[in-house]
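Human:
Focus on the backbone:
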Amino acid sequence: EVKPHNGAPAVFINGKPVFPNGFVAVCGGDPKLVKEMAGAGVHIYMDGMGIGNDTEGTYDYSGIDGYLEKVIASDPQAYFVPRINTAAPGWSTWGRRHPEECVKFADGHTGPVSYASKLQEVEASRDLALFIKHIRSSKYADRVLGFLVCAAQAESAEWFAPEIWGGQMGDFSEPCLSAFRNWLRAKYLTDSTLRKAWKDSNVTLETAALPTAHERRASTTLKFRDPAKEGLKVTDWYLYYSDLLAESINHYAHVVKEASGGEMLAGFFYGYLNTFGPFQQESQNNAITKVINCPDIDFFASPAQYPGRAPGGTSSFMTMAESIQLHGKIHFDESDIRTHMTT
């Protein structure tokens, strides 16, 4: 659990505070590296692993069990906070089988599954719960502290808009449109209220369209939007777009807590408010208040900033680390800083 300790949030295992310094080996538990880490006093391992649903209709946890056993053989004091993915069953082909559930970008091409896909969410949540129940019933149950729950949408496993660094603009899929209209119904209730806010006498809650790429890039007052001139269509879109991702994160956090009886930690790569620069509006990371107040979330993670990493540099955090702490949660800074020995 995470609770206050000497004025700051801390991780407790069996009632005792521990320093949550973890190792991401990305090498399948290499015994040499595990022993080096254990010798340095690091006993928490945060490698990525599947959740046993690579093939639809079957569940195979043998590889997961083998990894845990391998690490513990090299470090008998090992604990784990694995990175796990929220991919639907048969994830490598899921998008091809359900193209209508995938992100559609402004240029027309299709990307990974949409955060708005309820089909993906239902199937992934079921498999995540089954995976956690397997862990809880295994002989390693007391070694797995919780999970860094990763996004199925991004190559980096971080929770933000897919393909954003390639300049892509989403999400124009049908699931996203449907979810946007539901969001508008909850906010405006009536067509007349929506028309007044959007300054559009023809729009209805049933016909409201996603703003085009041109509308999202346009502005009437220098680089700013003036709702008195152009209405709130684009503003509403960006509020919804970040809410969509926040709700997905909060949902999976609840799955972890429910499946584990509240005894496992849940964390996420999210809240990158200092990172995206001109892409920040498109990042879907702007609803951090909704996420940071979620009672089911125990920690956040983010890499160190990539600029300023050279010798003598400063780097910094991608997120609001102090705010996370003030909300009683842990911030993991992923120091994937290269040394002179890497290629």
The first strand starts at residue 2 and ends at 5. The chain has a mean pLDDT of 94. The CA atoms of residues 198 and 231 lie 4 Å apart.
